[in-house]
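>> received
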Amino acid sequence: MKEKDVGGFEGKKAVVVGRSLVIGKPVAMMLLAQNATVTICHSKTPGLADECRSADILIADACKAGLLGANSLNPEGVVLDVGINVDESGNLCGDVRKEDVGRAKACSRPCPAASSQ
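>> returned
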């Protein structure tokens, strides 16, 4: 995700779903360094859908297939799905249900392409 994709990070509300030392926490710290307001959540966060829906920038890295759907997405927000999962059919998928991503704008990137761009 590039700053131009979101119109700058400063003043934006970012929600990071995932608290790993590999992606979740480092991404949260990078966003904080750019003056975004950051909330770190996880799959057991009460009101997770509401937290995600309020985000200008949503980073999904809980590694739970299809954890986030249409009720979790801000139609004006940016979604970056870096969760890598295998669904019940054996296909790679992300944390955000891909059929619901069309609700969000800008750099909606499904896994695994998200982490390489």
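>> The domain at 3-116 is CATH 3.40.50.720 (Rossmann fold).
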